[in-house]
Structure formats: C-alpha cells, structure tokens
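Appendix B, example 12.
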Amino acid sequence: MSMYVISVLALGISTLASVYLPVVQLPEPSGSYAVGTRTLHFTDTEREEIFTERSEDKRELMVQIWYPSVHQQGDKSAPIFPENNEIFRKYIHAYASYLRLPDFVLDYWKYFRTNSIENSNILRSSQSYPLIILSHGEGTGRILHISQAENLASHGYVVAAIDHTYSTTATAFPDGRVTLHDRVNTEEDKFLAFAKETGKVWNSDMNYVISRLERMNSGEEISFLKSMLDMKNIGIMGHSFGGATAFHEVQFNPKVKAGLNMDGTLYNLSLPNGPLKPFMILRAEDFNTWTTKYKQGAIQDPQLNKMISSELQVMNQIVKSGGDIMYIQGTSHYNYTDLQLYSKLIQLTGMTGNIDRYRSAKIVNEYVLNFFDRQLKGTGGDLLNDFYSTYPEVKMMKSSDLSK
C-alpha cells in the first residue's frame, strides 16, 4: 500500500512539474533565415574596471552575437545556459537567489534549448546586415533576451547582446570565472546618482562594443563578421535599465540611428539640441496606472511626482519628434523578457501580468521588428499605423496623454 501511495505521489509531482516547470523551447523565430550564434570575450584595455577594488583590472565583457546563418543537417541547437556543470551550478545558484527559490528547483534549466546553432557560418550576402545592440536590465543578463535576438536575426539583422559585467545575475568568462551581481542600491534617495554612475559605464560598454564590431567589419580585426555589418544602420534596444540607457546612447552617439526601450524608467533626462532621433518606448500596463494617478493628483510623494513629471516631459518630446510610445494591457515588467516563458508560475509572483505569455512575446517581437524595419531598412512600419485591429491590447499614447 505504501509503495502505491508513493507511486501516486510521484506521478502527481511529475505531472505538476511537466505543467508548471516544463523544459523550455523558445518560440521559433518568424523570419526566413536560419540563426547562428557566437559568444565573444572583449577586454577594453583603455578602461579601468571601477566595480572592483583591483586597480589593474580592465573592463571585460561577454557579448553574444546572433546572425543569419547557414545550417547543415544534424546541427544541434545551442543551450540557454552554460553546459559546464560547475559553471551551470553557479548560474542556477545566482538565479535561484534572485527568485528566492532553492537551487534544486531550477535544476531542469540545464535542458533549455535555443533555436540557434552555435558557431555556425554566417550567411554571406551581397548586402550587409543592420546591427542592433541589445542591453539587459539591471541584475538580469543577456540570456533573458535570446528569443528577441533570434527573431531579429531570422529577419536579416545581426544582434549583439552585452552582459554588463557586475550588473548581471551571472556572467561566465572563458577561463571559468563567473561574476555575479555586485551593483546593489537599496537607498531610494540615492537612486539617481547610482543610475547615472552605472549608466555611464553601460554607455561606455555600448560604445566599445560598436567600435570593436567596426574593426571586425572592416577587416582590421579578423572576424567571421567581415563586410557583413551595415554600420550606417545601427540600432539599440534594451529592457528596464538597459532600455533607459539605450535612450541616452541613441540620442548622443552619432553612430546610432534609432532605438527602443522596453519598460525602462528614464533616469538620464538630458536631451540633445534639436529634434530627437527615432525612438520607441514599450511600457507595461503599470505605467499607465501610475500616469493616471499622477494626472489625477493622487500621488502624495513630492519626489515621485517630480520624477514622473520629468519623465513624461521627455516622453512628450519623443512623441513630438515622431517617436512612438505605447503600453500593452495585461503586461508587467518581465513580460519584456524570456523569463515569462520559463514557467506559468512566474505569473504568480507578479513579475509578469495576466496576458498569455506567448502572446506577449509575439506582440513584443513584432513591434520591435516593425520599428527597426522602418528605421534601419526603410521598409514595413505598417503595424505601427494599424495596431488597433491587429493587437487591441496595444495602446498608443499621444502627446495629450503625457501632459497633466
């Protein structure tokens, strides 16, 4: 009898695990190109690492590249997490701590696969591919944006996602080192100072990665990317802090043409002279809630009122310069990452909203693609003009929505 009970319990646990903790296969990219990926290790020898105490440390970055690829029969898709068991354990411990879970609950993450083939050949074409730099949120990492990068690459883009060292949950380097999140700010009144210090480093990371890719493209540095990057059409996108940092990079880096912010609160509100470059902001439904409260005078905190007012003024300038600002009903902050795809249980934490997670990912991917097609390729953009009929959850914001 006891063995029967144990068997029933085991079956029940197995069934629940298969539903709520499934082995994730990311959504297939919607484009016609197969996708390859390579991960590069960069060291900026001209820049000291300010987030460590060792004066001899230089800024090191891991950058993952996705690109249109040539696949051969029998190619195996790349894993999401490092396959080395020791390194994987460090990642899982870091993410389990982030999610406040015991490590063993996330052990199944080692089976997660992508749609990309590791180290495959780039599809060489007579036309080069526009470049998009992708920046994660504070304390997360590039691995939470793989499906977005794959989808863009399948449509003829090269995407370079940066792990901003010491601002990620975990980053593994070729020699086996794993750096963790070391940029913790718990004092609300010091947020802006913290954000500007960290943002300055992230902007320097973006500048450095663009310069390295320029050298690879020109042949100055040996690379599989030689002559394949359209460096006249560079875009930047990011989530959360990475999206806010992308706004500053787009407006002040003359090499960058357009950019996109996925639910990032703007912290650096300085603007260049003249009209702004093309920019799109996708926000969670929470943003509309806060905006409504602000306009109704329901927020009592003077500092919060000032921050919201300043951000809305900048957003108004974005709209007046031809940019796009919208929110998606039913979304929360992490609906703009792959974390929403890992388990239905993520929704119970409040990190994602009540929208279906796969529909959320599809909407975000289509708007991102539509925006960059319009700005970097000069094609498409129809979705931005006809969003009501296609995705009624998407609410475009006008200038009047952003003023009190």
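The two ends are 69 Å apart (CA to CA). The first strand starts at residue 34 and ends at 48.
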